[in-house]
Design goal:
Layout (H helix, E strand, L loop, with lengths): L1 H20 L5 H11 L6 E7 L4 H4 L13 H17 L5 E4 L3 H13 L7 E3 L16 H8 L1 H9 L37 H21 L4 E5 L1 H11 L4 H4 L10 E5 L18 E2 L3 H12 L4
Parallel strand pairs: 1-4, 2-3, 2-4
Antiparallel strand pairs: 1-5, 5-6
Helix pairs in contact: 4-5, 6-7, 8-9
């Protein structure tokens, strides 16, 4: 009898919850409902961090695979991100990053902050930023002035429309001319990439190489780039294509995911929708940083 009463009370609470949602059914409310209904506890932790501001970020240039360093501001951002992880007492077993120095440097700064510079680090080109093709090295605002805001937003934020390709393979922006990629065959070297292309490049590596490490009980830190991280969260957060197009990830703020035994996200009550993981730090400052990324071509 007691079990029946408890079940009835639970159903009443669920009914009241859905009635309170009304027609809007916001993403945050749905995440709260997932928390209420969650059956499996968090057993794994994955922390993502986008590299700190680079010199070309500060110049408002399309960067892509151009291997530019962190700016002084970017170094300070990376140090602050490391301090946030230190404050939370985070420790890791393994780290992943791209072969681009801005992500590598951000990772090293973070690991130094938590006194884990000894950690094994795996670098792989598949974690690189998306290749911006013929736009690499161009000023974003000047490109807006030339092609129009709508066209540039399509190139920057659409899911499956890439920028113009690199026409000249003698260009400094053609990866085949960089010794870092000497082992890659020409058929996998990109001339341009959309987010969809970046996802197709990175996610098989995530599922084949990274996810098994998490399932093996390792806490992982991934230092990467705006678009490789967008590709990742699109998949682990089940974000639709039309929503991911408008998602911006701020620089050097740790994004923490707690995962269950099947590597499904256990939603955080502090998440900023459509994400289910939580950013560490002052939430108002984080929202301002997110808006700052969105404003780069306004």
């Amino acid at each position: 009898m007691l079990q029946l009463i408890l079940i009835c009370l639970f159903l009443v609470d669920v009914s009241a919850f859905f009635n309170s949602m009304g027609s809007s059914r916001s993403h945050n409310q749905m995440q709260h409902m997932q928390l209420l209904m969650a059956n499996k506890p968090a057993v794994h932790r994955l922390v993502l961090i986008r590299h700190g501001l680079s010199t070309w970020n500060e110049l408002n240039k399309f960067t892509g695979w151009a291997d530019v360093p962190l700016s002084e501001t970017g170094i300070q951002e990376a140090e602050a991100g490391g301090e946030l992880m230190k404050k939370e007492g985070y420790k890791f077993d393994l780290a992943y990053t791209s072969v681009l120095k801005r992500a590598i440097k951000t990772l090293h700064i973070g690991l130094e902050a938590i006194d884990q510079l000894y950690l094994p680090v795996i670098k792989d080109w598949r974690l690189n930023e998306r290749h911006y093709g013929g736009l690499q090295g161009l000023d974003k605002q000047e490109t807006v002035n030339k092609y129009g805001k709508d066209q540039v937003l399509i190139w920057r934020r659409s899911y499956d429309i890439p920028p113009p390709t690199i026409e000249d393979k003698t260009s400094e922006h053609y990866p085949g001319n960089d010794p870092k990629y000497s082992d890659l065959s020409s058929d996998v070297i990109p001339l341009t990439e959309s987010l969809k292309d970046t996802e197709a490049r990175f996610m098989p590596y995530y599922y084949d190489e990274i996810a098994p490490q998490i399932k093996d009980g390792k806490n992982l830190l991934i230092s990467a780039h705006g678009n490789t991280l967008r590709a990742l969260v699109k998949n682990i957060d089940n974000i639709p294509e039309d929503v991911i197009a408008n998602l911006n990830i701020p620089t050097a703020i740790p994004l923490v995911y707690d995962l269950d035994e099947d590597l499904n996200v256990v939603p955080s009550p502090d998440a900023i929708a459509p994400l289910q993981g939580k950013y560490l730090g002052n939430q108002e400052e984080i929202r301002a940083r997110i808006q700052g990324v969105a404003n780069q071509t306004k």
